[in-house]
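Narrative of activities, Objective 1.

The group set out to show that a structural description can be obtained from nothing but a protein's sequence at a throughput compatible with the screening campaign. Below is one input-output pair from the validation batch, recorded exactly as produced.
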Amino acid sequence: MPASRADQLRLVLSRLGAPGAVLVAALLVDLLIISAVGFDGIGPNGSELWLLPGIAGLTACALVAPTRPARSAWAGSAVLVASSGLIAGADAASYTALLHQITFSETVAGLALLYHCVRALTVLDALFAASALVVSTLIAVATRAGFVFGVPANQTVFTGMALLVITVVAGMMGRGPTTTRRSPVGTLLRGQWPVVGLLAGALFLELMYLSSAAPDAAVVLVLSLAGAVGALTAVRDPARAVLVFTAVVLATTVLVRMFGGHGFYPTTGGLPFGQVASGVVVVVVLVRQSPPRRAGALIGVMSAVVAVAAVVNGTAGYTEALRPLFVGALLLLGIAVAFGMFLRARDSERTRMVATAVSDAQTAERMALARELHDVVAHHVTGIVVQAQAMRAVAEQDPRVVVDALGQIERAGTEAMTAMRRLVRSMRGEAPAGAGEFSEQATTDLAADLHRLVETGNHGVPTEIDLDLPPDLPPEVARSALRLVQESLTNVGKHAEGVTRAVVAAHARGGELSLEVRDDGTGQRARPEEDSGYGLIGMRERVELLRGRLSAGPSAEGGWAVRAWLPIEGDTDRRDGQ
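Output recorded for this entry:
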């Protein structure tokens, strides 16, 4: 059960994709901030918890937005207004980094709602939905009370307008059918939602930190964004990602020194949270994809650059913290390397599994074609051999028999060539694999196919037929039954001695198809050395695939008998469900 729940959680998260990962990251950052400031002794304890209902409601609306954009947008607007009234009534403290008094989760959820409305709705409906979201945001900013941390109102208006324009443009670019259109960015982000979530969470924390720092320090955020983009492209070019990371770290070090370096990210050696997360991602990708020697060299370069940045930033008054910084950096590097080695080992195991699965599929296909070739072509060739032997034996006594035998030989040869062409077409991909002469009809009327098989008489032995079959046999059962009878009659013609009559019986009783092919011969001729003898092997393989039973040997009444029992329901259904 724990594994099953983990698989279900992984499936839900993978369906969210990169946008959902950003939303989850924003939610986690909000929860971290609220839990930290909710009981910090400033103001009533736990007052910030009144932010949670609005955060949860808007997050739920954003998750539903891909399937119901209009309803989600209007519901999200109502939730935002109601949450603002609740916060104002409870005199709760709000915080901000991008939009005044609007949390990270609410900002990301609102942008997601706006994007899906612009992308999926008509122009008029999208305009009304977007207006509702903008108006509700303005009402929330004006209504919410409490402590205000962050950017001034004019910067909030500028940031809000910029986010609005970017989201609308992105939604318009996503309009229309997308099945045949794959943007490079979408292709790059597809499957990297855990990395997107990690980087987004680190950037949200950095944004929260910079909102209370000097305004000029916000320039560092641009460098952190560049580092995050480089980390996302590491899966395509790890060396380029290392170059971007080192350039970003060196540029950030210069800016930190320009700002004075006092109290600027002291816990991470002067490196912003987003750049730390980017470095971890790049190290993981290097260990996972690059050869060990090259990965070690590039990681050494990254470590040296980070060490230089920590030492330079430490001279601003945090030199005593270099030792714990070194220990923490070493621990974080070890975790990244270990995780990269785990992913590398998993990739190798997955590659081996895929190679094994491909090899097994190829082997199964070869075995199926070999059985089809033996069952179909050998049947007709056996008829030719039997007719030729009979013609040679009676030609001197009755030359007229030669004409009839030649006609039968010609017909059997033509049928053999037709069956061979069908098999060749199936192997070339022009027909379903294993679609031989009788297999296509076997899925519709097994009784008619058995009658046709007996009436052709290519095996050279008079045959009686006794059938009691339902009209709705499963196709795989009917096909295998026809092949079993065909191979059994072929063996009668090839190996039975003194045979004058053969009997084919097929009955469906008690959820099973019972098959019997017997002759009245006096024995079995020994197989020539060049005879492959794969007929009985192929029959056993067919029966085992259907979870049936097979017996072949001398009959109590004399002669040779082949009996098979194939499940029609029961075991076949269980096999299909596995």
